[in-house]
Amino acid sequence: MTESGLPELDPVIHAQARLRVTVALAGLRSADQITFPRLQQLLEMTAGNLSTHLRKLEDAEYVQITKAHEHRTPVTLVRLTAKGRAAFEAYTQALHRLLDATGGS
């Protein structure tokens, strides 16, 4: 909470690109993963931009990045961790409270 009593929004998630990534991953079941190229395609982001934002989310332990091979082809898989899912839930609740407090809904 801020001094004004308004909820604070998680700065790791709040950046527009990271919010989009988190929303996309939260749409998956908790054990599901998505390939990096598929996530890049869904979000219409460059590989470099997506990598940068995933690194921030990974540093916060909100996403897990797994490098694997499928038929000798390297593949990068991304999933939202339990901590990331909880942080996203807290973020959405804080956003709702913020909007309610300011008459936004």
The CATH fourth-level homologous superfamily: Winged helix-like DNA-binding domain superfamily/Winged helix DNA-binding domain
CATH level 3 topology: Arc Repressor Mutant, subunit A
Q: Count structural domains.
A: 1
Residue runs with pLDDT of under 50 for 5 or more positions: none
Share of β-strand residues? 15-25%
Global shape: elongated
Q: Class by helix and strand content?
A: alpha+beta
For the record, give the distance between the C-alpha atoms at the N and C termini, rounded to a whole number.
20 Å
Task: Describe this protein's structure.
This is Winged helix DNA-binding domain-containing protein. Keywords: DNA-binding. This protein has 105 residues and is of the alpha+beta class. The protein has a single domain, classed as Winged helix-like DNA-binding domain superfamily/Winged helix DNA-binding domain (Arc Repressor Mutant, subunit A), CATH 1.10.10. Helices cover 53% and strands 17% of the residues. The chain has helices at 11-14, 16-26, 36-43, 47-59, 82-101, and strands at residues 34-35, 63-70, 73-80. The protein has a three-stranded antiparallel sheet with strand order 1-3-2. The longest helix is centred in the C-terminal third of the chain and has 20 residues, at 82-101. The model has no long low-confidence stretch (mean pLDDT 93).
Please tag this protein with its features:
alpha+beta; three-stranded antiparallel sheet
What does this entry show, briefly?
The protein is an alpha+beta fold.
Fold topology:
Blueprint: H1 11-14, H2 16-26, E1 34-35, H3 36-43, H4 47-59, E2 63-70, E3 73-80, H5 82-101
Antiparallel strand pairs: 1-3, 2-3
Protein name: Winged helix DNA-binding domain-containing protein
GO molecular function: DNA binding
Keywords: DNA-binding
